[in-house]
Amino acid sequence: MPDWLIPVIVIDLIVTIGVVAFVVRRRNRQMSAHPPGPGVLAGLREMTTFVNERHQRIGEYLRGNWSGAPDQLPGVLGSLLTELEREALAGGIPFDRDLLKTLIATSLRYHKIGHGSEVQKALEQVA
Question: What is the value of pTM for the model shown?
Answer without folding.
Answer: 0.62
